[in-house]
Structure formats: structure tokens, C-alpha cells
Design brief:
Helix content is about 20%, strand content about 25%. It has helices at about 5-20, 75-85, 95-105, 125-140, 235, 275-280, 300-305, 330-335, 345-355, 370-380, 425-430, 485-500, 525-530, and strands spanning about 120, 145, 150-155, 160, 175-180, 185-190, 205-215, 215-225, 250, 255, 260-265, 270, 275, 290, 315, 360-365, 390-395, 410-415, 435-440, 445-450, 460-465, 470-475, 505-510, 535, 550-555, 560-565, 575-580. By secondary structure, the chain is α+β, with helices and mostly antiparallel strands. The chain has 4 domains: about 5-60, no CATH class; about 75-120 and about 285-340, no CATH class; about 120-275, no CATH class; about 345-580, Endonuclease/exonuclease/phosphatase (Deoxyribonuclease I, Chain A, 4-Layer Sandwich), CATH 3.60.10. Keywords: ATP-binding, DNA damage, DNA recombination, DNA repair, DNA-binding, Endonuclease, Helicase, Hydrolase, Isomerase, Nuclease, Nucleotide-binding.
């Protein structure tokens, strides 16, 4: 239901906020929905349908992902499969005999055959209003009519003066006169508190009506609701005047009318024994009565028929199979829309799930750009904590103690901070940032190689993994300001010492601030290759598509997988190496 005009506004607003001209300000956008449901209001075409001379921010920016797990009708898969067929039915197509037979089982010849308390769903507001008026009149005797309080500026005094009777408002204004009764079904028509779940379309039942006498006349002050969604309105429940936290009290809202200079105060709700199809999109209910009488656009019938959790809860009146149809332009557009490729997504997760890889050694390196800032992000990452060995650079830690909140369950942490890494370069030692760390799973037998003779002035850690797999793990961080010639000399000393340790294979990872994708000379890569190492990463590891985070492995290894993972919180993406 999002129009291209609104989508363009979202793009421009994000560009304005982020201060750049990238699509959507450079943010990643996850657009969730179903184009086969209701189109944008008016005559606007859906986002996926390309139009000449209309601003389009969809075609070149989005790829399609088809979700396959059914939630609403998961306990009635036969019904779910029927709905999937109705969803893509063209207007000229006829229902199969089997599908028609299923629907005929829930077709009702008259309203009297339908459950009275079920939500009734219609195509038009007129049908909804008629049903709601009839429902409250026939079921309740203690009906209260609540007129809107309309205020208009008095030209003589300049003060806002309440009118004797409400004006005739527009259909989008707060309602002129609200008819309610204790027990009546209602729906909120405004966003009252989005964070608290009190949003336009929230359903409930009137539980209490609070009035005060003003000028000898009782005036309704609050309407208390039992909401269908028990988690909504938590903040408002705590403010209940009578202490009953099962009731959410709603006050009058104030907003200008379309009439110039007029302000209306009215309760932001309306009767909801029945609703339009547009209002129930996204809703789930156990039981509903659906009329197909005045369906007027593609997708309406499908949306209405798919609200219930099972076929047994659906009751259809005014059935006409010609009313069930989709927009053929959507079918064609989705057929041509590029599909998202997940071939290389979550590789560590796939490896963990492969029985043949149960004994593989999984090593991940990530430049965290501040461990304290991102430790919670790290803990929530879907793949980082699948690593047996998790190497980190730019930890930005100080002090010898490791705070409890930096510990990872099931891991032992080893670290070397920047200030402890330099002997001869005071300007680097005193600079904030830097530092390296390694987390190793507790079931691994590990010997840290903390000090190596003749190796100084490097931010590095060396761990000897002795069981259940064998490997020498090295993590290194080179600051951009570190003189390259001096760094190479110290790196050469380290690599020479690793040869003397003679514990294979050796895996060296880190951030060397040398772009391996650059066409320029790469002296750090050259040194590793001269020492017999192979560089495993072949794609960019940063937002700028530079490869600053290589992984080197000693000798020639055939059973190695390596690549780049994804993260949302760092300029650097993690890289991984798996030894089979």
C-alpha cells in the first residue's frame, strides 16, 4: 500500500538525514510485504510495476526474497495452499473444481447463517457503517452518543468557541458522533502511542465509560478498552485511574478539521463489528464473515479471504469467483524482478550444519572498531559465536583486567593492548585505539606464546592450538600511521620466529591497512608470499570494497574454505577460515 510518491519521499528524507546522495542515504532497506495484496490508495501502481515518467526507486535497488514458511494458516496447510492459488488467480481464469468445492463448503446463503460475533469484512465503508449501526442497535440498549467537540474562533473575541453541534466532517476526520456501549467492538483510528502498541487499527472492546458533569450535563472523559492485543498499552495500563491494569483508557484527541480555523476534539475510535478490507490487511483472526459483493480492485478478495487461521473459521457471503483476481502487471513484474542470491550468505552456519564438517576448525577475524562499544553486537551476531577461534583487532582496550561484560560464554579471552605492544615507538604506544584479542573455545587446549625473542613493536598475539585440532593462530594489527618499512622489518622478524617454532599450519589474520585489491605494489603481501604463505580472501572486506583484512596460511593447504561474512555495525566485515 506504499505509493511511489511516498517511497520517493522516504528516499529523499534519508538522503537529507544522512547527508549524501546514495539511494536511501546509503542505508540498507528491508521492504517486507506482498504486492498481490492491496495496491496503494487511489490509482497509483505498486512499487514493483515500472512506469515511464514516474520516479522509480525500486527497480534498480531491490532484489526479491520469497518466504516459504506459512504462519497464519500453519495448522491448516490445505487452506493455505488454496489461498496461495487464489493469490495469483487471473481474472479470466476459472477456479478448479477442487478449489471451488473447498470454498463452497464455507459459502453462506444469508447473513443469518453466519456467527453474529465474528468480524464482518466488507469492501466499502458504506457496507461497514450499515453493519455497525445495525449491530449496536440490535444488541445494546444503553447506547451512548458522543458528539465531537468542535471549536471555531469567535471573530469578535478571537477565542476558540465550542460549537453547539459538530460540523459535518470529512471521512478522514475524527468521527462526528461516536456511538458506543459497554461491550461494543471498537477500533482505534489514530496512532496514540506507537511504541506502546496503541496504533491505528488496534481492536478492542469497550469495558468502561467515565463521565463528568459539566454545566449539568454528563460529558464522557475516558473510554476504557479491553484490547485484543494483551501486550499493547502497557504504559497506559499503569495509569488506569481505578487501578485496573486490564483496561486501557483512551482520551479525546485534538486535531484540525478540513474546515479552515476549526479544531475537533473526539475519541479516536469507531465501531468495529465490521471493517473494510483495507483495515484488516495484516490482521489474523480465528473467525470472520467475508462479503465479496462490492470488490472493486485486484487483491481485495485474497486479502479478505486470508485473514482466518483455518478454513473452518471462514464464512463467505455474496460469493462470486470473478471477484477473486490479481493484477497481471504484478505477476509480470515479479517474474522479471531480480532474485536475491543467498549462495554465499551465512557460510559458517552452513558449515556447522554439515555433518562432514563437525571436526573442522573455524577461525574468524573481525576488526571491531572498539570491542567495548560492540561486544553486545558481537554476542548477537548470527555467525561470530560459531567460531572456535575468534580473532579481533582494534579492540581499543586498556588496563590488564578484563571486565566481566567482555567475557563470552564458553570462551577464554587472550589480549594484548596497544600500550603494551610497543617498546621503541612511544608515539604509537601513547595513541588511543588499536589492540588485539583472541577468544578460544574452552574445550580447546591452548598455549599462548606471549613473548617471542627479537619480536617487538607489533600489535600481535600468537596462540598454539594443540587439541582437538592443531594450528598456530596469529592476529596482527598495523596502524595506518605505522611506517611501512619499519613495520615490514618487525613483521619479518615475527614470521621468521614462527618458522622456528615449527608448528603447522600457521594462520595469520588481521588488519594490515594494505588493500589487497589495489593495483599498486603490496609489500606486505609480497613478504608473506616470500615466506611461503597463501592469501585466502579474494573480495572486499570494508564498506569501500577494499581488502584490508586478509588471511594468510602457511604452505599449500587443500582442505581450506575462506571468505567474508557480513555485519551491520562496523566499517569492516568479518573474514573466516575453516580447516577441514
Amino acid at each position: 500500500m506504499v505509493s511511489k510518491q511516498l517511497f520517493a519521499y522516504v528516499n529523499w528524507r534519508l538522503q537529507q538525514i544522512k547527508g549524501n546522495q546514495k539511494p536511501f542515504g546509503g542505508l540498507s532497506i528491508l521492504a517486507v510485504g506482498d504486492f498481490f495484496q492491496l495496491p496503494p490508495l487511489g490509482r497509483a501502481k505498486p512499487l514493483c510495476v515500472y512506469e515511464d515518467h514516474v520516479l522509480d526507486f525500486w527497480k534498480d535497488n531491490f532484489q526479491m526474497i520469497t518466504l516459504t514458511q506459512i504462519m497464519r494458516q500453519r495448522d491448516d496447510l490445505t487452506y493455505a495452499e488454496l489461498l496461495n492459488r487464489l493469490r495469483v488467480k487471473q481474472k479470466h481464469e476459472k477456479l478448479t473444481d477442487a478449489d471451488k468445492c473447498m470454498l463452497e463448503a464455507v459459502i453462506r446463503s444469508s447473513p443469518e447463517e453466519c456467527p453474529v460475533d465474528a468480524l464482518h469484512i466488507y469492501a466499502t465503508n458504506k457496507e461497514v457503517d450499515n453493519h455497525n449501526t445495525e449491530a449496536i442497535s440490535s444488541r445494546f440498549s444503553d447506547i451512548i452518543n458522543i458528539d465531537a467537540h468542535d471549536y471555531k474562533k469567535d471573530p469578535r473575541t478571537g477565542e476558540m468557541k465550542r460549537q453547539a453541534a459538530p460540523f459535518k466532517g470529512d471521512k478522514r476526520d475524527l468521527i462526528d458522533t461516536l456511538q458506543i456501549a459497554i461491550g461494543a467492538r471498537v477500533m482505534l483510528t489514530r496512532n496514540i502511542d506507537v511504541e506502546d502498541g496503541l496504533v491505528n487499527g488496534t481492536f478492542g472492546q469497550v469495558a468502561k465509560i467515565t463521565a463528568q458533569t459539566q454545566g449539568g450535563v454528563p460529558v464522557v472523559q475516558l473510554i476504557g478498552l479491553h484490547l485484543d492485543n494483551l501486550t499493547a498499552g502497557q504504559k497506559h495500563r499503569n495509569k488506569a485511574p481505578d487501578g485496573d491494569d486490564s483496561i486501557v483508557y483512551i482520551e479525546r484527541s485534538e486535531e484540525p478539521l478540513k474546515k479552515k480555523g476549526t479544531v475537533r476534539r473526539q475519541f479516536p475510535m469507531k465501531l468495529a463489528f465490521a471493517c473494510t478490507i483495507h483495515k484488516v490487511q495484516g490482521m489474523t483472526t480465528d473467525c470472520a464473515v467475508v462479503s465479496l459483493k462490492h470488490i472493486f480492485e485486484p487483491g481485495m478478495a485474497y486479502v479478505a479471504l486470508s485473514r482466518t487461521t483455518s478454513l473452518s473459521g471462514l464464512h463467505i457471503t455474496d460469493f462470486d469467483e470473478k471477484k477473486i483476481f490479481c493484477d497481471p502487471e504484478i505477476s509480470a513484474s515479479l517474474e522479471n524482478m531480480p532474485k536475491a542470491d543467498f549462495h554465499n550468505v551465512q557460510p559458517i552456519l552452513h558449515i556447522v550444519q554439515d555433518p562432514k564438517m563437525s571436526s573442522a576448525l573455524k577461525i574468524i577475524h573481525h576488526n571491531t572498531e572498539g570491542l567495548e562499544c560492540h561486544v553486545e553486537d558481537l554476542k548477537c551476531h548470527h555467525e561470530l559465536l560459531l567460531a572456535d577461534v575468534l580473532c579481533l583487532t582494534e579492540t581499543h582496550l586498556s588496563g590488564s583486567a578484563v571486565p566481566a561484560y567482555l567475557q563470552l560464554d564458553g570462551y577464554t579471552m587472550y589480549k594484548r593492548n596497544r600500550h603494551a605492544s610497543y617498546t621503541n615507538y612511544v608515539h604509537l604506544a601513547n595513541k588511543n585505539g588499536g589492540g588485539v584479542a583472541i577468544y578460544v573455545k574452552n574445550n580447546f587446549q591452548v598455549s599462548p606464546v606471549m613473548y617471542i625473542q627479537n619480536v617487538t613493536d607489533l600489535e600481535y598475539l600468537v596462540l598454539k592450538i594443540e587439541a582437538p585440532k592443531q594450528a598456530l593462530i596469529v592476529v596482527i594489527y598495523r596502524p595506518p600511521s605505522y611506517n611501512l618499512a619499519e613495520f615490514l622489518a618487525n613483521l619479518n622478524a615475527l614470521l621468521t620466529s614462527l618458522e622456528i617454532i615449527d608448528f603447522k599450519p600457521v594462520i595469520v589474520c588481521g588488519d594490515f591497512n594494505e588493500d589487497q585489491l589495489s593495483h599498486r605494489n603490496k609489500p606486505i603481501l609480497n613478504l608473506f608470499e616470500d615466506k611461503g604463505y597463501t592469501q585466502l580472501i579474494s573480495t572486499g572486506t570494508t564498506e569501500n570494497n577494499t581488502l584490508l583484512d586478509p588471511v594468510f596460511i602457511s604452505g599449500t593447504q587443500s582442505n581450506v574454505r575462506a571468505g567474508v561474512l557480513q555485519t551491520y555495525y562496523s566499517y569492516h566485515d568479518p573474514v573466516y577460515c575453516v580447516l577441514e
